[in-house]
Amino acid sequence: MKDRKILVAMQSLSVYDLNSFGKYVHSPYFNVNKPIEAFFDALYQKIKTDKTEDLTNEYLWEIAFGKEKYHNQKFLKLNSDLVKLLEDYLAQKEFDSMTSLRSSLKIEGARKRNQDKLYNGLMGELERLGKMEMNQSVEYYYTKYQIERALFNLKTENEKKNAKFEIETELNINKISENLDFFYIAEKLRLYCTLLSWKKMYQLDMEMDNMDLVLSQAETVKYSNIPPVQLYNKMQFTYKDGENTEHYFELRQMMKKYIHLFPNDEVKEIYNTAISYCINKVNKGDFEFQRETFEIYKETIENEVILSDKDISASDFRNIVPIALRVGEFDWTENFINEYSKYVDEKYRDNVVEFSLARLEFYRKDFGKVLDHLNKVNYEDVWYNINAKTLQIASYFELDEFDALESLLQAFKMYIRREKSLTSNRKEHYLNLIKFTLILMKLTPKDKEKLTKLRMDINDTKGVVSKPWLLEKVDDMINKK
After folding, report:
1. DSSP 422
2. 8 Å CB contact between 75 and 61
3. Per-residue pLDDT tens for 345-395?
4. Three-class secondary structure of residue 458 per DSSP
5. Of 104, 108, 114, 109, whose CA–CA distance to 145 is shortest?
6. How much is the average pLDDT of 127-156?
7. In this model, does residue 340 exceed pLDDT 60?
8. Environment class of residue 312 by beta-carbon count within 10 Å: exposed (0-12), middle (13-18) or buried (19+)?
9. pLDDT tens digits, residue range 413-424?
10. Range of 63-67, 280-284, 352-356 with top mean pLDDT
């Protein structure tokens, strides 16, 4: 039972959602199947007490169907029915959060069922929604289109024939059309940005239809105050014309102006574009963008953008720490590790904390503490294994532990060559680190000519892990008398 979709899905729910799903299952409006209720209750109790190993098919069958003879197909259907209920629950939760969409559907439901008495109240609700500062993402304009369409449908043939009905002011076809235009242009731009981001990573021979029209329309006055059009249009410029940093800084200004109008998933999408732009600039040697990257990360933390349901991913945590260290924010980094590690999933937390503290101590040049923290890292994960070994190499070198370093380098070389999850290019980058470190540890400050050549070789080699550190060590030896 441990690998069943429903059990895995329920275990991944937050405590709030698990309890809420229970109310959904027990609601006769959504479910009238009593065996499903009993099945859910059994799963719920074992998940709460962390005793899911007790969940056998036979045990759950008896809970749901009593003494009836076990039938595997019927049991599988019970599982799939509860999965479907969970999917419906998730859809219901999303629907509940879409205030304007629900209002639109209320109008349509009232119209189809001839509930004239409800019209005035629903119209007032829409007017109040229109005055509120709402989420103004792409979907907002589609919902506005639906609302205007629903209002149009409310104007029955009798109303249109009424003497008091003034067609010039009452007919809202222009508003319907306008909101459909806003949605279309914004959504096309958003999809275009997604395509451009994928093209940065993969060789995609793919284009989108009608983009010339969309891009020219986005520059017109009509769309100058439409937040998703402005933001996504500027984002596509950062992808296509990355060398022009004006696009990036204009995007940052727009983010400050409009970002609060977007839902959290789109906010992350927009921030990720800005972060990726900065990291790409740093990778090309524009190190001024390291500070810019740090400031964006700090903004996402302060605004809780990086937290999802009070959780922070291990990869996000690992990415933030080195950026902060590279700009000299050591105290900030220590505080971040202490304050935010509690939001990392418990099964990843120890590794994240120990490895991050090792990085912090490396920048503080307390190499003994670096090794202490690395000794507490679990190396089953390939990412931690190779990155921890990289820190160990530098720390042994700094501590003049050359016997231990040489042994480590030889073992690391064998590991890299055997590790199947690494691409050939990635392997070469680590092997270059090993090769250059082995050469460096055999040289002395007297070997100026060899050191100069080594520096040129490191500098001219494209793929070298820890390249800045290697160059720094070579320069130290060249400048040493």
Report:
1. S
2. yes
3. 888 999 999 999 999 999 999 999 999 999 999 888 899 999 999 999 999
4. helix
5. 104
6. 74
7. yes
8. buried
9. 999 999 988 899
10. 352-356
| Helix or strand holding residue 435 (H, E) | helix 424-441
Buried b (16+ CB within 10 A) or exposed e, 416-443: beeeeebeeeebbbbbbbbbbbebbbee
In this prediction the pTM is: 0.74
DSSP 311: B
Give the pair of three-digit tokens for residue 258: 């409009």
Question: Scanning the structure block, which residue is given the tokens 């002011």?
Answer: 169
Taking the C-alpha atoms of residue 236 and residue 18, their distance in angstroms, rounded to an integer, is 40
Helix (H) or strand (E) holding 385: helix 382-398
Cβ atoms 93, 13 nearer than 8 A? no
How is residue 201 written in tokens?
A: 């990573």
Amino acid at 260: H
Taking the CB of residue 149, how many other CB atoms lie within 10 A of it? Answer: 19
**How much helix, strand and coil, in percent to the nearest 5, is found in the chain?**
75, 0, 25
Q: How far apart are CA 157 and CA 194, in angstroms?
A: 44
What does the pLDDT read at residue 109?
Answer: 86
Secondary structure element (H or E) that encloses residue 197, with its range:
helix 173-201
Residue among 51, 49, 34, 40 at smallest CA distance from 18: 40
Q: For residue 310, what is the DSSP state?
A: T
Distance CA 282, CA 319 (A): 14
The number of angstroms, rounded, from the C-alpha of 248 to the middle of its chain's C-alpha atoms is 20
C-alpha 418/C-alpha 60 separation (Å) is 45
Helices (H) and strands (E) in the chain, counts: 25, 0
Per-residue model confidence as pLDDT tens digits over 293-317: 999 999 999 888 887 667 888 888 9
Distance CA 383, CA 426 (A): 12
Question: Residue 140 class from Cβ within 10 Å (0-12 exposed, 13-18 middle, 19+ buried)?
Answer: buried
Rounded average pLDDT over 280-300: 90
Residue 291, token pair as written in the block: 């500070």
Which sequence spans correspond to the domains of the chain?
5-97, 100-182, 379-481
Whether 337 and 319 have beta carbons less than 8 Å apart is answered as no
